[in-house]
């Protein structure tokens, strides 16, 4: 018997039919595999580190100092990163100028470069006359805490700029134009319309900056070193602990970082990405 | 009220070419043109959103060419309405008043009044994402009116809506404008929309204004073949005209000769383009006696298209010469024409319009959304 070219539609939604369910299951399988892999690694870390190492980490004054420094430097980096990312993202999205494509690509360079190269380049830069002049003017970065922020900012700001530019790309400029006819100045339209509309993108940009800054290690080793109570942040602690053979302590610090990162991400997402 | 003089503005390879336009106080002016003709660009220049290269813009006698958009006294309703998605309906409508630092009591009273006026009072606390297209349009209109503009600029305000909502909103827009007498510039590409609201219409194409006039004048007497094509004349032919005293005789070749009434003292002899609107072509079943009109052609019906209230009949007169006629439903039912029927086409000389510019290449294609 010949089958009709178009069969009668079934009274099911796209997600409840057999094909729909199979499709959804195959997509979700990738999610499950990825999350399961991460959780399995995390569980192995927890089991290897053990309760004793965790206790040691929480009691150790060196690690507590590194934790404080990590949170403080990354916090400042996020503020500084957003301070640049918001106007830069807006400018790159709204204005066209000669060399726009080149500038847009340069902004992305830190995303592509290995972070270690950034540290090395900074070290070299501060050996030049321009670098010397900055240090002589009182802004000392090499082997200083300020250097941690500089490194983190250079490596992570591009992620924020990219995310925020994409957000502004998605906002119709006509909305700002209307605001301008209704009584806003150009800046007023930006602050009262574009900026609130870009809130979600700015939050995402901030998250990206923070996660990137929180995890960097290579450029810090080169540019500020790993001096306990002075320039040691949590990723440096992991390196220092594993280099002296205290793997369980290094893993315990890793777990601490993961828990902190997860808490921060959930908190920011809950507060910042909340629907109106 | 609005006087635009020699306005020039370019974006990439597209340019507005020396546009001059006068919109009278209290007038409902429609800027009509196809997609990509420069309509939106022109009104963005009027609103001050594009800095023009040369030319002047005067509003109510004041040269506003270098004024900021906020100081031009224009209420602007852009395509797709551009509502602020992070603000409620009430906050959207009150935005302009808040920007102008009106006191909160005035803002509240004015916003309530406007929301009631446009029929969105019950939606005051909703966000735009939860509004229908028609509701968004009303909110955007209230927002533009809240600043009590001297000029209201509406950029394709009803294009995104279904036909029924569009008709209703056009009626309300016209009613509102008649009530407030706010000078209004309405941009669109739809004839029915234009006819339902316009006091006068300006035809814009390829960055230039081709004709300004009353809607009936533009439809019946287009200034040139470009306008004639755009307003979907239907019967547009290259021809040779000859002054024969009281008439102009127009030879459309293929043995088709029309008589046209003379208008003014202009010399219409020579190569011309001639047009007759389909609704001005009268069809009667062919009989041995010719109709008494000065121009009577004979042909056979090649197609009949029922457009609802109107019926469009295509008639073949001679080799490859197609005429279009629009009949009312009643008229069509009286004759019951069908493909293959022989008919007489009668055309009054006053309905034959002659244009002396570049010749048309042949009859118009079947219009897509004509309601003529």
- Describe the global form of chain B: elongated
Q: How many E-type strands of chain A?
A: 0
β-strand number of chain B: 20
The average pLDDT score of chain B comes to 86
CATH T-level topology of chain A: MetI-like fold
Q: Indicate the low-confidence ranges of chain B by residue numbers.
A: 360-372
Helix content of chain A: over 70%
**Strand line-up of the largest beta sheet of chain B:** 6-7-8-3-9-10
H and E string of chain A:
HHHHHHHHHHHH
How many structural domains can be distinguished in the coordinates of chain A?
1
Measured distance between first and last alpha carbons of chain A: 56 Å
Structure write-up:
The complex is a heterodimer of chains A (276) and B (372). With 276 residues, chain A is an all-alpha fold. Chain A has a single domain (51-273), classed as MetI-like fold. Helices cover 77% and strands 0% of the residues of chain A. In chain A, α1 (18-59) crosses α12, α2 packs parallel to α6 (145-169) and α3 packs across α6. In chain B, the strands form four sheets. Chain B has a six-stranded mixed beta sheet, with helices on both faces. In chain B, β16 (295-306) and β17 form a beta hairpin. In chain B, α2 crosses α3, α2 packs parallel to α4 (133-145) and α3 crosses α4 (133-145). The longest helix of chain B has 18 residues, at 163-180. The two termini of chain B are 32 Å apart. At the A-B interface, α7 and α8 of A face β6 and α2 of B.
